[in-house]
Each structure stands twice: as C-alpha cells, then as structure tokens.
Amino acid sequence: MQSPPSLGTENQSPFQVDSRREIISLLRGLKDSNQLISMLIHDGAEVFITSILDVDDNNNTVIVDCAPGQLANQRIIEAHRVSFEGLLDKIGIQFSTTGVHSTEFENRPALQFSIPSNLIRLQRREYYRINTPVSTPIKVSFSVELNDSVEILKLSLVDISCGGIAVLDERKILDCTPGKIYEHCKLDLPTIGLIDVALQIRNSQDLVLLNGKTNRRIGCQFFNLSNSVLTSVQRYIMKLERERNSKMTGIR
C-alpha cells in the first residue's frame, strides 16, 4: 500500500485552482484512479490514509473513507480544519475543509464534507518520482546501532527518483532525525543489481493505515551520488515507467 508524500508549504498562490468544474474534475480523478490520500488534522500531528469514495456535484459533497476506530473519526470531526494531500499523475493535489461529518456510503461508515472552493495543484518535484512494485518489495539495507552492536536493518522501498527514495519503517527503528546521513546503504534494484549509496534523512511521517495499523514513511535524499550510480538509478526508473505504460496500454 503506497502512501502519498507530504507536498510542502512553499508559496502556492500561483498554483491555486478556483474553477469549480476543474476542482470537481481533479477530485473525481483521484477517485477514479483509486488514489490513496493523506488526511491530516492538528497541523499534521495526526495523519490517516483514506480515499475518495464519491464526488456529488448536485449535493456539493465529497465522501471519503473513514479512519479506523470511532475515537479517531471523532477527532477528525471535531478538528477545526482537516487537510488532504495526494498525487494525481505526478501532480500534487492539496485541499482542506473546516467541516467534516459522519455519513454512510454503500452501507458502510464514511466521512463527508463540502466540495472545496479552491485547491492547490502543485507540480514541483525536481526529479520524477515513481512508485515501486508492491507485490515484490525492494529492500534497502541500513547499518544501524542497536543494543550496542551494529545491525543491518532492511526496509521496503516505497518510491524512487534520481534525487532520493522513500522507505517504510514499520518497526520505527531507524533514527529519522532530518539531516542524519547513513553511509553505505545497499539498494538492490531488479535487473540493475546491488548499488551502494549514502542517504540523508529529509523527513518522516507516521501513518495510520485503513486497517488500523501504523507505519512510518521516511524520505531520504541521495548524498554525493556518483554519475555511474545515478545512471543505474535512471535505468531502473525508465524500466519501471516502461512496465507501467505497458500495463496501461495492454501491451506486454
């Protein structure tokens, strides 16, 4: 299950969308592509993974999947502001609401709010980032100090770009202090091979998944990446893109 990344807080006014027709189109795009989106309350102190279930133009409503647990949903309903972040065709989408209510959708609990009057459509990544296969997770090995000894911690890769990677740390072991550098991390890329990289921690986000379990997503930047390793990363990204395009077009 992939989870979407935080999109940042730069000056976003040039990217604001006010057209209701375009807003509805983007929201329905997230729904139709079954994109998972982040639902944030208390300025991002709590993050839940959800998805859009329905966008009703006539009733001016958006319905999303509820969070796991009645108490979590109550905190969302009582929050002064609820923010949402997701990705649609590599474009960041952000919007928020000040009024979330409980409802039902297809005989199951859900959350409802009004269609936002504006949203942010933001494409700002320096590098093209692509999700890695969920069915066959790629592992990244970190050397970490645990119990007065050095151990190898293997984490699953979430996505990759020529600028860095994101990993999942379900056990929340890795020291994710921003700026910390891990030398000699081993990244095993299918058809490319094992590459040695230094990774610098850029950000981390604790996620509550739809099944109620928690996970930690950690964003890492490649540090002093050599041209030869960069070429290998580029080849792998191109391979993933070709495979994805083949699936979308039905060409094998």
Automatic annotation (TrEMBL):
Domain (PilZ) ranges: 123-238
Cellular location(s): Bacterial flagellum basal body
Chief location bin: other
Keywords: Bacterial flagellum, c-di-GMP, Cell projection, Cilium, Flagellum, Nucleotide-binding
Keyword Nucleotide-binding on entry: yes
Domain of life: Bacteria
InterPro entries assigned: PilZ_domain, Split_barrel_FMN-bd, T3SS_YcgR, T3SS_YcgR_PilZN
Domain named Type III secretion system flagellar brake protein YcgR PilZN: residues: 15-121
HAMAP family listed in its UniProt record: YcgR (MF_01457)
Subunit organization: Monomer. Interacts with the flagellar basal bodies.
Family the UniProt entry places it in: Belongs to the YcgR family.
Role noted for this protein: Acts as a flagellar brake, regulating swimming and swarming in a bis-(3'-5') cyclic diguanylic acid (c-di-GMP)-dependent manner. Binds 1 c-di-GMP dimer per subunit. Increasing levels of c-di-GMP lead to decreased motility.
Protein name, per record: Flagellar brake protein YcgR
